[in-house]
């Protein structure tokens, strides 16, 4: 009897998993059948200057989007074919801001928003951070594990721009911010976390620089501008850290004789010490192995 109950329970479990995998797919809301045309990969718009803009919308993107239960006309107007929409970063940010007003206002006051208002096409806007493909139809909810804004993925998301040496050099930023973060304690802790839930309390870019309201590092209102602001930022995690604690932070700069001589030469000393100890240990073990092998050969 017990055997048949276990088999029955197992059968129900398999059936449940099968139904979730096969029938659990959610299709995006498409009340006006927009995808009947925009689901065609060859659909393009030709501008007056002859340039082509793809109007293809990948259904797979919509089905996993955080906006999948919102009809296309919510963002594209009730009659989108009669509205001339400039498909640029400014218009996209404005459209996102029509619903996400608070986040939009913060972004407008940030270094990214200020540069966007000046017509700078390089800056990050809503879709650059919230979509893995920088596509407005592929915005993923923040708490989904594969979202670009999920805690463990934020550094890689920022690195899409901030690890581009050519782009950063054009703004006078020479520090390799992503590489230096991943070498830091915080970067290693979030990378080596056994479980994703254990990574959520580790500091990443937004913990120090902010989210939608990121400022220039030399802006007096920036959380990382000066030792006092930086100390307050550190104290969010390190209670009672204080200014002296904050002064020991090198930021994203590499230690050098000019930048931080004490840290630089201490690092070199311990590297040499470690290398010499390991080398000496290898020699000792090697000599012991040779002696053991010699004795065995004599025997």
Number of helices: 16
Low-confidence stretches: 19-24
What separation lies between the terminal Cα atoms? 67 Å
Mean pLDDT: 84
What is the strand content?
under 5%
Q: Could you give a short account of the major beta sheet?
A: 2 strands, antiparallel
- Order of strands, main sheet, comes to 1-2
Give a count of the beta strands, DSSP E runs of length 2 or more. 2
Shape: extended
Structural class by SSE content:
mainly alpha
Instruction: Name the helix and strand elements from N-terminus to C-terminus, one letter apiece.
Output: HHEEHHHHHHHHHHHHHH
Report the helical percentage: 40-55%
Task: From the alpha carbons, calculate the radius of gyration and give it in angstroms.
Answer: 28 Å
Describe the structure.
With 299 residues, this protein is an all-alpha fold. Among the domains are: 27-74, no CATH class; 215-265, no CATH class. It is built from 16 helices and two strands. The protein has helices at 2-23, 35-38, 59-64, 73-76, 89-97, 101-109, 111-117, 126-130, 154-162, 165-169, 177-183, 185-191, 205-209, 226-234, 242-247, 261-298; strands spanning 44-46, 52-54. A two-stranded antiparallel sheet has the order 1-2. Strand 1 (44-46) and strand 2 (52-54) form a beta hairpin. Helix 6 (101-109) packs across helix 7 (111-117), helix 9 runs antiparallel to helix 11 (177-183) and helix 11 crosses helix 12. The chain is extended, with a radius of gyration of 28 Å. The protein starts with a helix and ends with a helix.
């Amino acid at each position: 009897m017990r055997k048949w109950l276990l088999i029955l329970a197992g059968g129900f479990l398999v059936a449940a998993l099968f139904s979730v995998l096969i029938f659990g797919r959610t299709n995006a809301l498409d009340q006006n059948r927009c995808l009947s045309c925009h689901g065609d990969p060859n659909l393009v718009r030709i501008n007056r200057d002859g340039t082509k803009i793809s109007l293809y919308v990948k259904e797979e993107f919509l089905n996993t989007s955080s906006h999948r239960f919102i009809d296309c006309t919510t963002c594209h107007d009730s009659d989108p074919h009669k509205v001339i929409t400039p498909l640029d970063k400014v218009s996209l940010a404005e459209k996102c801001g029509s619903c996400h007003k608070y986040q939009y206002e913060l972004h407008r006051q940030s270094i990214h928003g200020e540069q966007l208002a000046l017509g700078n096409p390089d800056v990050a806007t809503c879709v650059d951070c919230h979509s893995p493909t920088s596509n407005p139809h592929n915005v993923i909810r923040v708490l989904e594990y594969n979202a670009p804004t999920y805690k463990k993925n934020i550094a890689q998301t920022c690195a899409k721009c901030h690890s581009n040496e050519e782009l950063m050099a054009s703004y006078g930023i020479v520090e390799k911010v992503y590489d230096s973060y991943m070498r830091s304690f915080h970067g290693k802790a979030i990378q080596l976390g056994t479980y994703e839930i254990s990574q959520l309390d580790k500091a990443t870019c937004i913990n120090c620089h902010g989210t939608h309201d990121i400022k220039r590092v030399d802006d007096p209102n920036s959380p990382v501008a000066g030792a006092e602001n930086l100390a307050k930022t550190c104290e969010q995690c390190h209670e009672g850290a204080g200014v002296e604690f904050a002064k020991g932070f090198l930021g994203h700069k590499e230690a050098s004789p000019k930048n931080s001589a004490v840290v630089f030469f201490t690092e070199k000393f311990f590297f040499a010490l470690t290398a010499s100890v390991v080398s000496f240990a290898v020699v000792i073990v090697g000599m012991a192995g040779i002696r053991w092998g010699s004795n065995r050969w004599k025997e």
